[in-house]
Design a protein that fits this description.
There is one protein chain. This protein is an alpha/beta fold and 298 residues long. It has a single domain, classed as Alpha-Beta Barrel (TIM Barrel). Strands 1, 2, 3, 4, 7, 8, 9, 10 and 11 form a nine-stranded mixed sheet that branches. It has a two-stranded antiparallel sheet with strand order 5-6. Helix 3 links the parallel strand 2 and strand 3. Helix 5 packs parallel to helix 6 and helix 7 packs across helix 8. It is globular and about 50 Å long. 45% of the residues are buried.
Length: 298
């Protein structure tokens, strides 16, 4: 019997529900306080470790086994022209084994140049050559790490290439036989780049929504400059933009394989993090209540 594709593996996973994306190294919010004092405010944690695999063992061990988790890696640079070095791959595999998540999120971006970390996402170049390189990298990574990868659309401050972002994502998902994470703020960041900032859902019908396994939301700010606007992620340090909430309301009934909604809350207080989760949960209760009933049911 042939091994299941990455997409079929995540499609068969349990519904995770509404969760909080935390940085394991942050003191605010402190994941321990969230678990001890606010456990009823979230269904799971998405654990981000800044691509670090050398200092995670003791911290990961502090997450109780009964707290469901997904993992957000960084450093595999899947849209680069060639496969990343062995270190990030081995580190991702190690952290996956420690956390045992149903999948791992990785941005469709490059974060390292000649092995040096850059404090900026270089998002995918939107052309066929980048599609081919990304598919090849994802297929190679699939053979090296234990759990399936979910590529996520990265934030854009400028878009380069002759393809639309949604066409690029479709070709990557089908070429690599994988699911996708759709970051709604990052969708809006791209729309701002291509002059559709007032239409966050422009061409959304062209995206293969059956491939969306997880949705991300986060606080953000918009910076005005001569000739346009730029989206800046703030995560927990700001409110979720209405444009992102609009996209959530528009898409929620149309995602047949949705397993998780993650609010990225780095830099929020614990109370503010839970408040944002409640804001999102109320939208889900109103538009798709049956989905919440399936949380953690295989």
């Amino acid at each position: 019997m042939a091994e299941l594709s990455p997409f079929k593996r995540v499609k068969a996973a349990a519904v995770m529900g509404v969760g909080l994306g935390i940085d394991i190294f942050d003191s605010q919010p402190d994941f321990r306080v969230l678990i001890d004092k606010h456990r009823g405010g979230f269904d799971f944690l998405e654990v981000y470790s800044r691509g670090d695999w050398e200092h995670t063992d003791d911290l990961f061990a502090e997450i109780p086994d009964d707290v469901p988790r997904t993992y957000h890696h960084e450093g595999l640079d899947p849209v680069g022209p060639k496969l990343c070095p062995d270190g990030p791959i081995e580190g991702c595999a190690k952290n996956q084994r420690l956390l045992n998540p149903p999948w791992t999120v990785e941005e469709l971006a490059v974060r390292h140049i000649d092995g040096k970390y850059t404090d900026f996402f270089f998002p995918a170049i939107l052309n066929k050559q980048c599609v081919q390189a990304t598919v090849a990298n994802l297929k190679a990574l699939e053979k090296r790490i234990p759990g399936p990868l979910l590529p996520e659309n990265a934030p854009y401050e400028f878009a380069v290439g002759d393809m639309h972002l949604f066409d690029f994502m479709n070709e990557v998902a089908h070429g690599a036989e994988c699911g996708l994470v759709l970051d709604l703020g990052h969708v809006w960041s791209y729309q701002l780049c291509v002059g559709k900032g007032d239409q966050p859902d422009d061409r959304i019908e062209s995206l293969d929504l059956s491939r969306i396994i997880e949705v991300h939301l986060a606080g953000a700010r918009i910076e005005e400059y001569e000739g346009g606007r730029i989206y800046r992620d703030l995560h927990g340090a700001g409110p979720i933009p209405e444009e992102s909430m609009f996209l959530l309301r528009e898409l929620l009934p149309k995602l047949p394989n949705l397993k998780a909604i993650t609010i990225e809350v780095e830099d929020a207080t614990e109370a503010a993090a839970v408040e944002q989760a409640q804001q999102v949960r109320e939208v889900v209760r109103r538009l798709r209540p049956a989905w919440l009933e399936g949380v953690h049911v295989s």
